[in-house]
């Protein structure tokens, strides 16, 4: 799974770009503010339908143009094309997969598995459980094909139960229907999550050991309600307190991955550099696990890899990337920080983003 062509128009401060990333490793250098991260953002939008820099996708559209168009081509037999178009005046995305106008976002996400490693990735350790649930569910989605349908049914049941809790007077028979729905699908979601986690954990531990030998670190899956009780009984017994709060307090929507060092939250114990290595191990383990289980390959977007990593740690990180069958797009202010770190048999493309006229930057490939 690798991109062979990228074509971006109307993306932030970038001039129209056509890029042929023929190599597995693609280094993108340039001064701060030149547009390196914007290039990664375009790939992220192309594969995920959303930005990692802004909640409002219209903010990613160049200020003086009415729309943004992103196009990509994936290697394969036959090749797979992807397209995303966003008009400033419309909230809806226009999606294309293999030219199909009726493409759903889940199809786009499935076609091009992406993992992002950037400064915001620290939220896996220091942020709310929502980010860790997203990480967890990304993994389950890509290897458990019935997960998406179960996730949608669980979310629908939860939405209806919460609406009833906020109504005031509750008819017991009415809320019991949605509690049963939530219990049925929520238990199935938990089963898939637990199965994925039990297989993923050894891959993560192996990956972490290669980056940062830290035997005291533990990773645990918490399903979101008392592990000794059924979800049905928990929902029934908590109905009164849930009504006071106005939402469902326990269930699969509260699942979490707990990352601890000697039983303390990892974020409170580890240095910033160690945190980056733990987060990197989680992200790289996703790709390694996907390769082993589904024979599919991630594309990695890595923003400012040298930051907070010394030369030895950078080398270990890149060595793991080389062992994987993945494609990576890596940004750095100085290309020299990454140019000589690879094996001689690793194919590496070097690109440079330069400030140009009218505040727009352009991309050139180094010879």
Automatic annotation (TrEMBL):
Q: Which subcellular locations apply to this protein?
A: Cytoplasm
Read off the InterPro entries from this record: DNA-binding_RecF, DNA-binding_RecF_CS, P-loop_NTPase, RecF/RecN/SMC_N, RecF_2
Q: Where is the RecF/RecN/SMC N-terminal domain?
A: 4-355
Coarse class of the protein's main subcellular location = cytoplasm
> Does the keyword Nucleotide-binding belong to this entry?
yes
Alphabetical list of SUPFAM superfamilies matching this protein: P-loop containing nucleoside triphosphate hydrolases
BP-aspect Gene Ontology terms: DNA replication; DNA synthesis involved in DNA repair; double-strand break repair
Q: Which UniProt keywords apply?
A: ATP-binding, Cytoplasm, DNA replication, DNA-binding, Nucleotide-binding
Give any GO molecular function from the UniProt entry.
single-stranded DNA binding
For this record, the Gene Ontology CC terms, alphabetical, are:
cytoplasm
HAMAP family tied to this protein: RecF
**Family of the protein in this entry:** Belongs to the RecF family.
The name this protein carries in UniProt is: DNA replication and repair protein RecF
